[in-house]
């Protein structure tokens, strides 16, 4: 059984991911700076599914050391700090980048056009297998991955074939339709796709329950 | 995190600092808590594990009874080599007898290192031939020596394991019933 550390598990995205992954055959280590909040997420998961293998852990380094897969469910702005802490214990592990490097007004990205949050994380964790995932899904989508009768697509990008398969399984467990989009550089597109979805959500009031679906033959 | 790993490595094959850094980039540090599995029968064994701290065992199960193939404490490696090399399902389970800190070499890392670093290949060859010799000795002792003698040589060769591992597991490792081992231990104690 694989162990997944979710760093930032008390946030909207972190708790959404934790709850949906607890349905799968994984051991979850939930980690966040506020122990009360993260403990509440653990209790909530356990009350719905007493058999879930989930626990709160207060140290991101310890959690990552125990883990096979690390989910960075923290805002882009603090990713650097977290990455520096876990760098040594994340060696060779799958690290999932979920963040979208939005600016304060949500009308653009803070990253340069020739890079992405995922690629920046890869630079900070050179020996980890960084995979972009869960960045085109809103937190509310995790409780409702089927929106208006359609299962939302969830895009994945990365450079390691085995890591992509591993993350694909996580995405399926969470209830989304996984689509491997390409190598890690495709994250630039994926992060911009979410910029668009956020802008549309605000403009047309989708109530933060919206997602992408590729229509095809 | 990798101290003992490189100490053991360097005892067999000396490395420069650069070579050590190159190899380190391919290693996976992993903590395991007591009673957690590193591998379960039916899964594919994805890594060779080196023990930095703690103790593990590898065993098979038939009709509910466990047969321990190997223990591993600090400085030892453990894996289901058949499953690791072929990608077929593992026939063994590996779990932690104590909280453990491991250094894992995944299949992908292993293959890359074999290609890129000849010293790694030398180290692996020495490691596996050493394990093969140990296995030959264990087999010979199992088919030719009385249980009492086998137990004595086990405690002499591996006093740490004999201390740290419960008696019923040592009995399983030796292929005898716990009562048999207990009787032998009593007989030996009476003789002293």
Can you lay out the helices and strands and say which pair or pack?
The complex is a heterodimer of chains A (217) and B (192).
Chain A: E1 2-7, H1 12-21, E2 26-31, H2 35-48, E3 53-56, H3 60-66, E4 69-72, H4 76-86, E5 94-97, H5 117-124, E6 129-132, E7 146-147, E8 150-151, E9 153-158, H6 161-173, E10 177-182, H7 187-204
Parallel strand pairs in A: 1-2, 1-4, 2-3, 4-5, 5-6, 9-10
Antiparallel strand pairs in A: 6-9, 7-8
Chain B: H1 3-12, H2 17-24, E1 28-32, E2 37-39, E3 47-53, E4 56-62, E5 65-72, E6 77-78, H3 81-86, E7 93-96, E8 100-106, H4 107-116, H5 118-144, H6 147-157, H7 159-164, H8 167-174, H9 178-191
Antiparallel strand pairs in B: 1-8, 2-7, 3-6, 3-8, 4-5, 4-7
Helix pairs in contact in B: 8-9
Provide a brief overview of the structure.
Chain A has 217 residues and is an alpha/beta fold.
What are its keywords?
heterodimer, A: 217 residues, alpha/beta, Rossmann fold, 37% helix, B: 192 residues, alpha+beta, Jelly Rolls, 2 domains, four-stranded antiparallel β-sheet, 8 strands
